[in-house]
Amino acid sequence: xxxxxxxxxxxxxxxxIDTVFEADHRDxxxxxxxxxxxxxxxxxxxxxxxxxxxxxxxxxxxxxxxxARALDIASRRLQVQERxxxxxxxxIARALxxxxxxxxxxxxxxxxxxxxxxxxxxxxxTTAVRGRFESSGANREQLLALLRxx
Length: 150
Ligand SMILES: [Zn+2]
Fold this sequence. Notes:
This protein has a single domain (about 1-150), classed as 2-Layer Sandwich (GTP Cyclohydrolase I, domain 2). The chain has 6 helices and 7 strands. It has helices at about 1-5, 65-75, 80-95, 110-115, 135, 140-150; strands spanning about 20, 30-40, 45-55, 60, 80, 100-110, 125-130. The protein has a 5-stranded mixed beta sheet, with helices on both faces. The chain has a two-stranded antiparallel sheet with strand order 1-4. It is globular, with a radius of gyration of 16 Å. The termini are far apart. Bound molecules: zinc ion (ZN). Zinc ion binds near residues 45, 109 and 111.
């Protein structure tokens, strides 16, 4: 079981984004409501929730399932949510060299629910933004607003 849950150890999440298409599309692409689960490296308990991703292409787009696969690879190792968020954003940035990328994870941590403060249902949101927004005309706030629009 742990072999499966930790199967992302030593695998580069960006290597999953291997289906890349040349495209003229320069407007934002958003993926929303992507489920994920990982394991907290401090407590060896699961944390799980949903991810949102948005990027502004710079001549390259990815197969959308590949972005979800990159999230899976980065999740299947001992993690902290903050680092996981950054690793997914970095993977998209390296694979696609987009003008901008934003990733947001919202998760419940079993180490907050089962022990310690015992607050089931509380959720943690983390955000990572990468890119050169100046050249694309879009800015960081616009990308984040797009990511959070439901
Ligand atoms: Zn924990």
